[in-house]
Automatic annotation (TrEMBL):
Coiled coil: none annotated. It is a multi-pass membrane protein. It comes from the Bacteria. This is VIT family protein.
Length: 229
């Protein structure tokens, strides 16, 4: 058996938040910059909107992710309190329940009973949390970790189109931001897939197509207004 660190399930929490944040940072900031630029805004106004998008987006992602994951953690802790009370009040019934869980998975009744008894003696709440509630150390909700990952990843993603808008002349700013952001999205999808053990090509194509569509649509909306700022 390979050691536990060869598996990727323990990366799910932070990887999801990081990929979501970076992807949102690239798409939303590039879309805003392209939309403002398409409305014939000045270079200064475009950069100001990009910086505002980075700061506001990072803070919004952090707050939203923290609240969301904290709600999940509250539910987990409430279930653990209920299970702990049940173990104290009806230890025999809880033992039978645990044995039944193992029997439904194909374990022989006598073996299931022995396993349930030994796990209960070792860590009753941990056994029920894992096998009855589906709560284990590698998938516990971590609000602060998720919030920090989302904020940092959003800012990192948003920095790409913002940097491109700083370097590109106003005459070619929109195509430079769009092409550079799409390339960044493809690289992000490939890296995320590699980290999670998924096919890289399909993940890169998916995030690239969806991101390019979002940026193009936003630029189109900006072009409809065609207002100098």
């Amino acid at each position: 058996m390979p050691p536990p660190d060869h598996h990727r399930i323990n990366r799910a929490g932070w990887l999801r938040a990081a990929v979501l944040g970076a992807n949102d940072g690239i798409v939303s900031t590039a879309s805003l910059i392209a939309g403002v630029a398409a409305a014939q805004a000045s270079h200064e106004a475009i950069l100001t909107s990009g910086v505002a998008a980075l700061v506001a987006g990072a803070l919004s992602m952090a707050a939203g992710e923290y609240v969301s994951v904290q709600s999940q953690l509250d539910i987990e802790e409430a279930d653990l309190r209920i299970e702990s009370a049940a173990l104290k009040a009806n230890s025999g019934e809880e033992l039978d329940e645990l044995a039944l869980i193992y029997m439904k998975r194909g374990v022989a009744p006598d073996v299931a009973r022995t396993v349930a008894r030994q796990l209960t003696a070792h860590d009753a709440l941990g056994a029920h949390a894992r096998d009855e509630l589906g709560i284990s150390p590698h998938n516990r909700a971590r609000p602060v970790q998720a919030a920090l990952a989302s904020a940092c990843s959003f800012a990192s993603g948003a920095a790409l189109p913002l940097l491109l808008s700083v370097l590109a002349p106003l005459s070619v700013l929109i195509p430079v931001v769009m092409v550079g952001s799409v390339i960044g999205l493809g690289a992000l999808g490939a890296i995320a897939a590699r980290t999670g053990g998924a096919p890289m090509g399909r993940a890169a194509l998916r995030v690239t197509v969806l991101g390019a569509l979002a940026i193009a649509l936003t630029a189109g909306v900006g072009a409809l207004f065609d207002v100098s700022v």
